[in-house]
Amino acid sequence: MMSLESESIEIIREAVATAHNPVMMYSIGKDSSVMLHLARKAFHPAPPPFPLLHVDTGWKFKAMYAHRDRMVAESGVKLITHTNPAGLAEGVGPFTHGSSYHTDVMKTQALKQALDAHGFDVVFGGARRDEEKSRAKERVFSFRAPGHRWDPKAQRPELWNLYNSRIKPGETIRVFPISNWTELDIWQYIHQENIPIVPLYLAAERPVVQRGGQWIMVDDERIPLEPGETPEMRRVRFRTLGCWPLTAAIDSDADTLEAVIAETFNARSSERQGRLIDSDSPGSMEKKKQEGYF
Amino acid sequence: MDTLQAKDIASFLDSQSHKPTLRFITCGSVDDGKSTLIGRLLYESKAIFDDQLASLESDSRRFGTQGEKMDLALLVDGLQAEREQGITIDVAYRFFATERRRYIVADTPGHEQYTRNMATGASTADLAVILVDARKGVLTQTRRHSRIVAMMGIRHVVLAVNKLDLMDYSETTFNDIAEGYRSFAAGFGFDSIQAIPLSGLDGDNVLVKSARTPWYLGPSLMSYLDTVDVGDARERHAFRMPVQWVNRPNLDFRGFCGRLAEGSVRPGDAVRVMPSGVQTTIKAVLSGFDEVEAAQSGEAVTLTLADEVDASRGDVLVAADAAPDVADQFDVKLLWMSEHAMFPGRQYLMKLATKEVTATVTEIKYREDVNTGAHLAARELGLNEIATVNLSTSAPVVFEPYGVNRVLGSFILIDKLTFETVGAGMIDFALRRASTIPWQAVELDKSLRSAQKHQRPRCIWFTGLPGAGKSTIANLLDKRLYAEGRHTYLLDGDNVRHGLNRDLGFTEAGRVENIRRVAEVAKLMVDAGLIVLVSFISPFRTERRMARELFAEGEFLEVFVDAPIEECERRDRKGLYAKARRGELQHVTGIDSPYEVPESPDVHLDAVHRDPQACVEQVLDALSRL
Ligand SMILES: Nc1nc2c(ncn2[C@@H]2O[C@H](COP(=O)(O)OP(=O)(O)O)[C@@H](O)[C@H]2O)c(=O)[nH]1
């Protein structure tokens, strides 16, 4: 744990020391929470010398917004939020426009807009290599051509802990400080460091409906219920958090952090299963990445 | 593994947080069974979840090579393009854990054209698993893998003799391979070599010992990985911490952030700031939010110092009584990782720990054949080639030999124009210490020398295709300046090639060195207070930029003599183009050797529509505005 933590802190400091205008993606989930905690440790007693960026699709769980505001107040870090104005005007949402269009407009396009508007050159992200096959080859410093394009061939070799952060105007770098963490490491660290997380990660009675064999929580009234469909109360929790209509809950009794860790350790299905965008087609995550999805 | 209960969590977490991490690399060529073996390790250690298994089953049907059986190799085949080509072409990192250890596996392809990827994976590994197909035994590729692994400083090797099922689990086959390997590897200085008979496909000796190899008395692969001691057998090392970042939130706090490369540190320790050598003591050691009693090698900390000493990013804090050397010329092992060849004399950015300087290879001592280890002569280094070279840096660098300290002994080279990472190097030793070569203290300096001549020294650099009119214009300008009472000198490509650069050819390497020497000569002349006119084709941006960087701001004027190749060929004053077209001459710029057009020259001369005299006026005008 100590060596993982030290490696991540080294990466964060290295990126900040060489960046002109760094920013940290803050998605409010557990990985973001760990990343923010590491950044606070890296620069203590100063606050992290960069703002947080939350790309708000307008469809996050209510509990996530509450948690975000609390963490920002506590850490003293500046928060920038951005929602794609065109998507907002168009009323884009996962129910009306489908998950991939929603994700593209409200997440991928919105992220590019925000990065371009502020001219950020170094962008921290909380992705981990163990999450998905195409991420196993992702660099810690991932190079993006102008237009945020990810070209697997243009990635720079990373030897030792020597990262090359030199870029030309228009190019950017995504930096993944927790690349080498596994899901279990994340939970252990949250436990060890007492890091606050969104309560949705712990089991509770929540209103859900079944869609495509998965439990979707009814977080507000925007969900179009089928005739005869009524939300039922079930004891569920989330292994990953995103837009609520696109994030499936799992049946669980784990209502303490300890129980969540036990369940994770014994788990027989991977956390990305709860994300409805991954399994569209083989290589779908890879395609999204080339288009600029985080 | 047993099912975990929430109530046991405290002891579980305790054991987890003290679980050591072992990083290893797997090396094998296509079809040695590397992906299958890694897939099995992940599968057996339960790093694979049910939904991943389900997608594996569907993938197995679509892409698999195992008929109706699950193809474990697909668990680790990453990018779609590679999957379609059926090969692995990059470094992938995999994670799994046992009850004893966490593992990070660098999974790299083993073909010769992927030496770069293997070196990348090996650079952070403690151990290497080298696969051999039992039917084929130790091959050229096995030797290559071992050589790279040894070069990158890995001291522990597992020789995985795979596919033994296809050899009826023959003891003789295994022993022959193991013995052959040991005698071959004797010269590499590995601390340990463990040979293990395996079938990755059927799982023999992967997790537990197989009944089909009763003659094998050693451990299974997994239990060997779980127990092998890769600890550093060397003496305890003195404290070293490269400064990454100076943390200065207010006037009362100045912290030096970094990660300990070696040794330990506690408050009260006497330390030095290198390269300046200034001494002070540690006031406090901060780890995260807390002040701590001590920090060990590998920890990221913030240190405060007792005195207000000068230290910044790139400096190294070290134990006061055991400071490392500082030097600016090194003997290094260099791996080239770019499609653009490395030429001696060309400048690159060098990053060593947190220090960035400019570096130049001054000499390639020899290139090494990765397959045989044979020493070969070389004038340049291509992609995936390895050489021992002399490297010279623009400023003194705090270092230690790679064999002693990986952090202060390893570096990367970055292209100055594209910013790609083009080289990786390991320092063997310093050729001379920086401190032993104080610059000759010169009392008469450039400003005195130029004041005496009543002029401001300049370097006017003409670049363009052969026949564009560089020499004509430069000659006219030279005469004009002379007539105005200026002290000038004209360096012309053809003349210099007859004398100073007589030993250089027209290959890319020769052209790079040609320009380097001329630029250095021009710099000495500018130092002497002269206005120097340089008329050289100088086809490459990198060298023109290198030349510019030798001079002070405003001292250098890049003049692009622009005439299209058709026009130059039509003029063909020296008959060069005609010869090239007849095939009598090679490496002619514009024909079979490239010319990189200047992107933003200080002066752009249209040498087709304006006559030479008008061009001279244009240069003079630019000079007067410098
Ligand atoms: N008989 C046998 N075949 C194997 C074994 N390991 C791998 N193979 C087969 O060898 C081929 C290449 O394996 P793969 O793991 O893709 O090799 P890689 O290219 O080194 O990753 C596949 O057809 C595997 O099924 C083994 O232990 N025994």
Describe the model.
The complex is a heterodimer of chains A (294) and B (626). Chain A has a six-stranded mixed β-sheet with strand order 3-2-1-4-6-5, with helices on both faces. A four-stranded antiparallel barrel of chain A has the order 7-8-10-9. The radius of gyration of chain A is 19 Å and the shape is globular. Helix content of chain A is 35%, strand content 15%. Chain A starts with a helix and ends with a helix. Chain A has 294 residues and is of the alpha/beta class. Chain A has helices at 2-18, 30-43, 62-75, 85-90, 94-97, 99-118, 183-193, 257-266, 284-291; strands spanning 22-25, 52-55, 79-82, 122-124, 141-144, 172-175, 204-211, 214-217, 232-237, 248-251. In chain A, a hairpin with a 2-residue loop joins strand 7 (204-211) and strand 8. With 626 residues, chain B is an alpha/beta fold. In chain B, 27% of the residues lie in helices and 28% in strands. Chain B is built from 17 helices and 26 strands. In chain B, the strands form four sheets. In chain B, strands 7, 8, 9, 10, 11, 12, 13 and 14 form an eight-stranded antiparallel β-sheet that branches. In chain B, strands 2-3-1-4-5-6 form a six-stranded mixed β-sheet, with helices on both faces. A six-stranded antiparallel barrel of chain B has the order 15-19-17-16-20-21. Classes of the chains: A alpha/beta (294), B alpha/beta (626). Chains A and B meet through helix 1, helix 2, helix 7 and helix 8 of A and helix 1, helix 3, helix 4, strand 2 and strand 3 of B. Bound molecules: guanosine-5'-diphosphate.
Quick structural gist:
With 294 residues, chain A is of the alpha/beta class. Chain A is built from nine helices and ten strands. In chain B, 27% of the residues lie in helices and 28% in strands.
